[in-house]
Amino acid sequence: MDRPCAVAPIIDQLAAPPLVFDFTGLSPHAANTVSIRSLAETPVAPLPVRFARELMNDPGWEKIGSARRGRKPVYVGGIAIAIKGMLLVIVATLGGLGWLGASELSFQQRVARLDADVAAFRRLRWERPLLRGEPVEGNAAEAFFNALGGLKRPSPALRQGLAEQLFYGQPLLPHQVAPLKQQSEILAELAASPQRTWSMTYLRPELGDAMPVPPYPKALDAALLLLARASTLEPDACLAASADVARIGQDLVPGAPLEASSVSMRITSLTAYAVRSCARRATARGLQRAERAFRELATHPPPVGHGLELADLVAGVEVRKASSLGRDADHIGILRTLQSRPERLKSWAYYEDPHRFRAWSPSAYPETLERWREEDTWRSQSGRPDVAAASAERIGWLQDDMRGQALLRALTVALSALAERERRGRMPPEPAALRLPSLVDPFSGRPLRQRFDPASLELTVWSVGEDLRDGNAEETWNERAPLDVIVRLRAPKHEQARRRAGRRGR
After folding, report:
1. For the chain, does the N or the C end have fewer beta carbons within 10 angstroms?
2. Which residues lie below 8 Å from residue 326, measured CB to CB, with a gap of 6+?
3. Which residues pair with residue 169 across a beta bridge?
């Protein structure tokens, strides 16, 4: 059956007029034998005997003749093979087209869902209560970054000097105040951004890893300059301005990568040093207002789930790029893409429904972190390196956000205790804010720890930190940060003077 078509032209030249043999009533094998022998023995047939014997040994070749002269013979085996070959080609072609169509349909369905998720994400915005003053309609993050573009960054020496002055609570030196005055207008614009009614950082997740992100190092410099500027104000105004800077850090988080949560935590850490310096000179009224402002900050945290959602959107876009049949791709590139597409679509399944992360609020710590640990375990068990790489570092970013929440809650509790002390004339044994569920330790879910030193009039409030071990507020560091998250505030100086006057009166 391997040589059906090569014989036809030879047989057509065997005799003139053509010989037609009638094999009616014979079996196929007998008809095959008689026909070949007759052809081999005819005197007008130049057909070699060797070739005739080869044909006799091919059972798939059958020539069926007719008694009527002039009719050409029909070669059934050759036609059947040709038909089968054509059918195989048609079936293979249809199967390939069907597989390609199913692959492209599944891909396009995922692309449509991804585009819808991106569009829905870009419609989000975070509406939060104002700390004080009249609201201004607009986007706080947009106003901040617009003003940030005109800010001149401090030199490394100036940056280090301002940080040291804030940490130790010392007044600024003349050469440190001069740069603040030079950029007073821009700093005023930055400080006014929290008066906007809502906040959202609008990025372009459809660009994938090429998506540009805001200049967060410059934002940290702006926060440092604003806090240094606040330290030059009156104590009560200093506390209010410090709360505004903490709110600026929160405004960076909605719609932004998880990195923004870590930046917000660092801004809150700087704010804690400024509050410590201002609280020592503040009035009872200033402490009460500051306590209310920081309570708003602590009980209305920004949506950290936006960062998780954005990360999955970006990962989905990267899979879409790798799975797409590009217009400029050659045939080899298209075949390679089609070959790898099934595995890539399996990875894409881990990034579907990213909007579920919006419900993951910092208010639910530590459950929010545990939920992500379960998610991370599920993804790591996939055995896919691209899935593991896309989910890397998220636990670290979330723990940074938890530290920021712990600082805000500890500041709120400490300011509440100092304000109560100003009202009653004595430090409460247990601040009332400690019992609020919204101000528990975000790492342990239990009340924050606190102690008061009557000799130094220093109040210490702390969280157990990410290692979940109470270090008794010791300044012990690991490779990332202090193990305990600590806030230390001292009673105002006028209260100390009142205590000394009371002792002299007795």
Report:
1. C
2. 333, 337
3. none
- For 313-340, how does the pLDDT look when each residue is reduced to its tens digit (9 = 90+)? 999 999 888 888 765 555 666 777 777 7
| CB neighbour list of residue 301: distance below 8 Å, 6 or more residues apart | 250, 361, 362, 363, 405, 408
Kindly report, residue by residue over 41-53, the tens digit of the pLDDT: 444 333 344 444 4
CA gyration radius for the chain? 41
160 and 104 both lie in a single domain: no
DSSP designation for 324: S
Calculate the CA dihedral of residues 109, 113, 119, 120 and round it to 10 degrees: 160
Tell me, yes or no, whether 95 and 179 share the same domain.
no
> Taking the model in full, what pTM does it have?
0.78
Contacts (Cβ under 8 Å, ≥6 apart) of 248: 140, 144, 190, 193, 194, 222, 223, 226, 267
CA-nearest of 395, 385, 377 to 480 is 395
Does the pLDDT of residue 60 top 50, yes or no?
no
DSSP letter at 449?
E
Domain finish residue from 59, 91, 109: 109
Q: What is the pLDDT of residue 475?
A: 74
pLDDT value for 427: 86
DSSP 96-160: HHHHHHHHHHHHHHHHHHHHHHHHHHHT--EE---SSS--EEEEHHHHHHHHHTTPPPPPHHHHH
pLDDT (tens digit, 9 = 90+) per residue, 1-30? 444 444 444 334 433 444 333 434 444 444
Check whether residue 403 and residue 273 sit in a common domain.
yes
Residues 443 and 466: beta-carbon distance below 8 Å? yes
User: Which residues constitute the domain of residue 285?
Assistant: 139-307+398-433
Q: Chain centroid to CA 293: how far?
A: 31
Question: Is residue 24 located within the same domain as residue 63?
Answer: yes
**CA–CA separation, 157 and 178 (whole Å):** 14
Calculate mean pLDDT across residues 67-78: 51
Average pLDDT for the chain:
81
Q: No. of H helices and E strands in the chain?
A: 18, 8
Structure tokens at 141: 């993050």
Cis ω on the peptide bond leading into residue 17 (within 30° of 0)?
yes
290 and 152 share a domain?
yes
Q: Is 389:250 a contact under the CB 8 Å cutoff? A: no
Cα 71 to Cα 429: distance, rounded to the nearest angstrom = 119
User: Comparing C-alpha atoms, which of 275, 131, 144 is closest to residue 222?
Assistant: 144
Distance CA 280, CA 267 (A): 21
Domains in the chain: how many in total?
A: 2
Mean pLDDT, residues 495-501? 48
Residue range 78-99: mean pLDDT, rounded? 64
